[in-house]
Write a structure and sequence with these properties.
Two copies of one chain form a homodimer. Chain A has 544 residues and is of the alpha+beta class. Helices cover 54% and strands 13% of the residues of chain A. The first copy, chain A, has 17 helices and 14 strands. In chain A, strand 4 and strand 5 form a beta hairpin. The two termini of chain A are 41 Å apart. Chains A and B meet through strand 13, helix 10, helix 11, helix 12 and helix 13 of A and strand 13, helix 10, helix 11, helix 12 and helix 13 of B.
């Protein structure tokens, strides 16, 4: 069974050649992140990913998480691995220093996150969800909530879960029915059922902090009447010790196509007197808070696609080098050769590799822009970077995850008949990848967000700014191509045609969105894919 | 749980509008196949598929086949269903009348086969493999072999299996090591291990007739030293009763990503004195016989892709009509609507539907050409039809199966989070579809066959003949488009560009195959996909 090897060299290439780390390290608060430190972080993370998390990936897939009378048990070895993860301080990597985090630039923590995902996606979901919950509390929680929950969530001693979905409320959160009754003492009693709650129940930590969307009495209908609550599994005493069990129970966990190691819970809130919850921020603004947090989560799911693709590639490459079958085509030599010598196997491997690298490059570009957007001293620069981030997050999410399914499927294909045998391991990546285009908003939801909120709303301003830069790259390629190599000229031409198509599509969206949104929306997903044609540019002339 | 509904109306459309059934019924031996009879056959097959086989699809997936001490047990209800299948005469549908078959035109039996695949692929594999074994014996078996085995194989009382693969011999059958020692009495003793043997062991029938590739002593190395043998599970007495158990044992069955209902056996031949086998045809010509049979099997696997796609579409459509989520975009109406009203869901459904219909149309065109190739009185017409069949079989196989993965995956996507839950059923189609691009030759093997044996070998003659017809369609569309509808002109233009690309690619293959086969082969799979652009033509002006 081949284990995950963190692609540190490829990651360094991105940090030093494509998305200059030096620019990020000049940002306020990032000064300590030297190139050497970044390398050390990647090296250490790579060891944990490859040595500890990766071997547990198949264990999680085979054993799955187990439900027993309301309790959920993770697979063999997972508790110890989680403890090691927490002890190493990995959970706190990208959290804010004021709550005990290490405040690493997103550019670096994104690469580390890719490693967790590549090594063991089911495991990685737990800290990912915890970080989402941390961000919600950081962003809009009261000082008391922050003080009570953040320190232990940042270390990872407690985990977090995001409770949005209900049976009738999936993509459409306006339909949320869970109710929250104020008790007059600052607390609320929460009643309702939530489904598809990742790590909603587990045995990795002694407490779980649920972030729950619910409606207060008399709240407006639809999305404008949803509030966000903190509902801990165990109440927390004033002395920070754990108190009574809260009225939230795990009714069952799902039997899924993939990510078997990650428990997907059905949670019943308030089967008794009601689960005790605390409001986060203001009433009726829950969805707004959730959306800020969700953008971060969507970016993380994009990183899942990249990690899975890298892992699928590594396994397929190892197999292709070792599996001897047939002779080399076009030679007289009748010796059997490894299948990596066969042209179609090479084509598949190259496609897997090049797509994965381009997805990583794009994600890092966006991560660096996140750092700029949150830390740059210049207001305008921050705003422009944020616009770029907002525009590209649905693309990172949609494109990296759709690609991961294709890449994992190619990985199975390279294994031939062995790829279909579960013990081989290649099929797990395909099964795991299949969820990534669905959760945190389907590809269709990403594309609708892209054309509506990110393009039509600002009349295409952000995307036209990106297109302008694409044209620079096209010209640069054409010039260099003329002087040095034909290939670059060919790429420039293809890029040019892609940009023209993109411009036309943007014009169509901007002009049509207001008057015939149905018609424009039919092309949303193909448009999202088209926007990816700019990835061929590779190097971004100036960092956004 | 929604059951399969045979798409009889769509099938009738193909028979009457695209690939005229009347032309096939004019062929010698097909006169009885009136339009009414074809309809009756489709109706009855549809009842069995939807009413009996479809409900067992999920049973097979969940229970799987079970191995116990050399015996293999199929899932609950499967034995009874198989008996019903045999009793109804369905196994004999496309077999030759001289051995008890009904000799239906391939055009009609292909549609029936699509139904079995759509209803329950794991089940359908059993008669599919039996038919392959029947064809091998029919084609080159001695009269004695035919007399002993064919009658009961044609009815389905006995099944057949195809034993090609060994651990070191997958796509490369030159590496087969199983040995066959002549005993001087007309029999051989077979020793060796075969893997990935579909229905190599099961409890559906009392006997199984294995067709086995093996080497005789002193046979040439490589593909020119492989012979084909009949090795029954139980020897057959002169009075046609079953005799001694032969020395072939099922060592284990595989734990697979999909088609759980279909046992995939590891068979040990000759752990004792050697399994008794009989030579089929002449020594050292086994691979040649296998290839004739394999072309038929590849076409059948193409039909698997079509059946699965239809099934995935039906389930996704039903879900999209029933699942209420969100409001209609672009209207003021805030009522919740079924998700089929959302543009991106419609786009996915239309893609699934249109691709499935076009795959079916192409497969039927090829099936009709098979009928012409085997029955037309005119030699030249037969040869031309056969050339068309040979050219298109890798395309039907490669394209329909690759598409089926994509379509089944879209089916999961339409279900959102529910698609990832195994109980929903959509994920099974994706898991099942994933094998179809691998077995009976991977897509890479299909594409290599296409550009090598089917295009380079005849200098592109067959494909250029097809291209000529494509140009006719392009012109027809352009003319009609000018007169009646813009859309047709647009399609004509796109088709024209596709044909031009195809012509260029064919010229590249024909000129490059001899001198730089590596370079040409890298593009083989993309070329196979390109050849499919002609599917937009829809209607074939004259039947090949």
């Amino acid at each position: 069974m081949s284990e995950y090897i963190a692609p540190i060299r490829d990651m360094q290439f991105v940090l030093h050649e494509l998305v200059p780390l030096e620019q990020v390290t000049r940002l306020p608060g990032c000064e300590e992140m030297t190139s050497d430190l970044a390398e050390a972080v990647l090296e250490e993370a790579g060891k944990l990913a490859g040595g500890v998390l990766s071997p547990l990936n198949v264990t999680g897939d085979r054993e799955g998480a187990r439900w027993d009378n309301g309790q959920v048990f993770t697979a063999s070895g997972w508790r110890a691995a989680y403890q090691q993860f927490v002890d190493g301080g990995w959970n706190a990597l990208s959290c804010a220093p004021e709550h005990g985090g290490q405040g690493l630039p997103r550019l670096v923590s994104a690469l580390v996150e890719e490693m967790w995902n590549g090594a063991n996606l089911s495991f990685a979901l737990c800290p990912m969800l915890t970080r989402g919950a941390i961000e919600s509390i950081e962003l809009c929680g009261s000082d008391s909530l922050k003080k009570t929950y953040l320190p232990k969530m940042v270390t990872g001693e407690w985990t977090g879960s995001m409770n949005l979905t209900e049976p009738q409320a999936g993509s459409d959160l306006a339909a949320v029915r869970t109710r929250a009754e104020p008790q007059g003492d600052g607390t609320y009693r929460i009643k309702g059922q939530k489904i598809f709650i990742t790590y909603g129940e587990h045995d990795l930590t002694e407490n779980i902090v649920h972030l729950v969307l619910a409606r207060t009495p008399g709240a407006p209908e639809g999305v404008k009447g949803i509030s966000l609550f903190v509902v801990p599994k165990f109440l927390v005493n004033p002395d920070e010790s754990l108190g009574a069990r809260n009225d939230v129970r795990c009714v069952s966990i799902e039997h899924k196509l993939g990510i078997h190691g990650s428990p997907t819970a059905v949670l019943a809130f308030g089967d008794g007197e009601g689960a005790i919850g605390w409001l986060v921020g203001e009433e009726n603004r829950g969805l707004e808070y959730m959306f800020i947090m969700m953008n971060a989560a969507r970016f993380s799911v994009g990183l899942e696609g990249i990690g899975l693709s890298e892992r699928a590639y590594q396994r397929a490459l190892a197999y292709a080098k070792g599996r001897v079958q047939g002779t080399a085509i076009g030679t007289k030599n009748r010796d059997k050769v490894a299948i990596i010598r066969h042209p179609d196997v090479r084509r598949m491997l190259m496609l897997m590799k090049s797509r994965t690298e381009s997805m990583r490059a794009l994600a890092c570009l966006v991560a660096a822009a996140m750092d700029t957007a949150s830390r740059h001293p210049d207001t305008e620069r921050r705003a422009q970077s944020q616009a770029f981030v907002d525009l590209m997050i649905p693309v990172v999410k949609g494109w990296s995850t759709e690609s991961s399914i294709e890449i994992a499927s190619l990985g199975v294909q390279i294994h031939g008949g062995m790829g279909f045998i579960e013990e081989t391991g290649a099929a797990q990546y395909l099964r795991d990848a299949r969820i990534t285009t669905i959760y945190e908003g389907t590809t269709g939801v990403q594309a609708a967000d892209l054309i509506g909120r990110k393009i039509a709303r600002d009349q295409g301003q952000a995307v036209l700014w990106v297109i302008e830069h694409m044209r620079d790259v096209e010209r640069l390629l054409a010039r260099t191509g003329l002087e040095q190599a034909d290939d670059l000229a060919v790429i420039s031409k293809a890029l040019g045609a892609g940009i023209t198509a993109l411009e036309q599509a943007v014009a169509f969206i901007v002009s049509g969105y207001g008057c015939d949104v149905q018609k424009v929306s039919v092309g949303a997903v193909p448009f999202l894919e088209l926007l990816e044609s700019w990835r061929v540019a590779g190097r971004w002339p100036t960092q956004p």
